[in-house]
Amino acid sequence: MIKHIAVFILSLFIFTESLCASSAGGNNPEQCDYQTVTKVIDGDTFEYSKGVKVRLIGVDTPETVDPRKDIQWFGTEAGKKLRELILGRKVCLKQERDRTQDIDKYGRLLRYAWLEDFFVNAEIIRQGYGFVYTKYPFQYMEDFKVYERHARENNLGLWDREKQVQWEREVERNKSFAKTCGEVRTICPEEALKNIGRHRTVRFFVSKSYDSGRAVFFNSKNDFHTSDNFTAVIFEHDKKKFHSDPADYYRGKTIDVSGKIKSYEGRAEIIMDKQSQIRVVQ
Fold first, then answer.
1. Per-residue pLDDT of the chain (282 residues; tens, 9 = 90+)
2. Would residue 193 be called left, alpha or beta, if left means φ above 0 and alpha means ψ between -120 and 50 degrees?
3. Which domains does the chain have, with CATH numbers?
4. Kind of pairing between the strands at 230-235 and 267-272
């Protein structure tokens, strides 16, 4: 009898442990999926191993890479902040509690990101680096709205209207410099295709810039696929010769880029391997 009771208790213990393990496993959206961040794309999107893209749930930061849109106020700062927080670090990724959000139409995982007790999604909103994305309900929506209101009322980050106006004026001023292309021994980006194989100085406004990890690209158009887009390129092994974080530094500025113009996939480009090839027009 005692032996049977012991067997029953042991069986019950094993069953209980199995049940606990199951509820803590992959079927539990609250369970952490630990991943190391390999690239930050912008203020609300990043990648981990093998190029898996993750979009932060409930967060919408100003655009810097979308080919359909101009660079937006505070987008560069938001990207820098997310990079500072998570790049190269192991983060805990969690799904939405009721699984209503998992993968978006672009194939990105929709997740909450944690660094131990530090809630990344919430801090982006709390510190004024992004807006609350309310198109789809999520479990922390009301909390995020409170964080956003606090940031707005205290003029934090992108809510600082005075700095935004200054930034907008600077962008317009830089764009006006680009209109002087064709003067002072420079050519306009649209003329570059006619000068393949020649050494020229191309003056253009950096509409988009991007660090792929293998190279940094500076584009004259929002959509680099545009046939008359001009691109200046810095390969990774030469990046240390240039300004720190060149993609962020030159974005939204007018620059003169000098070198031999080449054709790549039907578009014109100059490859830069030394700092003297690039100059900010002021």
1. 444 444 344 344 333 333 333 333 344 667 999 999 999 999 999 999 989 999 999 999 999 999 999 999 999 999 999 999 999 999 999 999 988 889 999 999 999 999 999 999 999 999 999 999 999 999 999 999 999 999 999 999 999 999 999 999 999 999 999 999 999 899 999 999 999 999 999 999 999 999 999 999 999 999 999 999 999 999 999 999 999 899 999 999 999 999 999 999 999 999 999 999 999 999
2. alpha
3. 33-159 (2.40.50.90), 180-280 (2.40.50.140)
4. parallel
